[in-house]
Amino acid sequence: VTTICLTKENYLPWSAAMTMGIAACGRIAYINGRKPEPAETSGVWDIWFLEDNQVKTWIVNSVSADIQPFILQKKTARDMWVILENMYGQKKKAIRTYQQMKTVYELRQGNLYVAYYYGALKAKWENLDYYFDVTWHCPQDQALYVAKEWENRVFLFLAGLNDEFE
């Protein structure tokens, strides 16, 4: 379904790729909760069980070996998905926000081309934006914040460039 293997650091790209892949296979309802387990006595349980196990297999095969024990014994694909989302994807987790900010501030150009360095930094900013999802009550404050944040990001980009650009 995806070639991205979930680690402790890449939940966002992994979940986006998995969601696309599972949806493309017609099985998205198994992870979003819209296809709960029917009664075993119903005529559709066998098909549900087969398809849910197919999604569970995709999930298990797309996570790193150190993450597999947390989900391997879960009953449904939805249970697995929720566990992973709670462990690695919660928007309000302070520790995740800290980790994302730390990677942004530590990134340097090093041996990367400037365009690749900018792309890597932009990807980290997008991950950080996920954790800083704020609902604004005043559009003017939001505009001021976005402008200031853009300025800070320009400074971070410049600070991470190699000395040859000074």
UniProtKB/TrEMBL annotation:
Organism this protein belongs to: Nymphaea colorata
Name of the featured protein: Retrotransposon Copia-like N-terminal domain-containing protein
Top-level taxonomy: Eukaryota, Viridiplantae, Streptophyta, Embryophyta, Tracheophyta
Top-rank taxon: Eukaryota
PANTHER family the UniProt entry points to: CCHC-TYPE DOMAIN-CONTAINING PROTEIN, RETROTRANSPOSON COPIA-LIKE N-TERMINAL DOMAIN-CONTAINING PROTEIN
One Pfam family recorded for the sequence: Retrotran_gag_2
